[in-house]
Amino acid sequence: MTPDEAREMIRAALVSVAPDVVLDEVDPDADLREELDLDSIDFQAYTAELARRSGLAVTEDDQRRLTTLAAGVDLLTRARTHR
Predict the structure, then answer these.
(1) For residue range 15-50, what is the model confidence (pLDDT) as tens digits?
(2) Under a CB-based contact definition with an 8 Å cutoff, are residues 34 and 59 in contact?
(3) What are the helix (H) ranges across the chain?
(4) What is the DSSP letter of 36?
(5) pTM attached to this predicted model
């Protein structure tokens, strides 16, 4: 998976939880929960949707890393490379 494909998958997963999300305005290293005003339930729904879309098992450790766009892109591109 390319970084652009990973960003698009993250965007789609976030939009399913927070329809007004505009990722172009989000700093890649900013905490998505703070930047997009996601509560814990929204964030859990986002990570579950990302797991569903990617076909990857998202562990608790992964959830802690998925707090930024950059970390999400890294996780998805590395996971797809090592499959």
Answers:
(1) 999 898 888 888 999 999 999 999 999 999 999 999
(2) no
(3) 3-17, 32-35, 40-54, 60-65, 69-81
(4) T
(5) 0.86
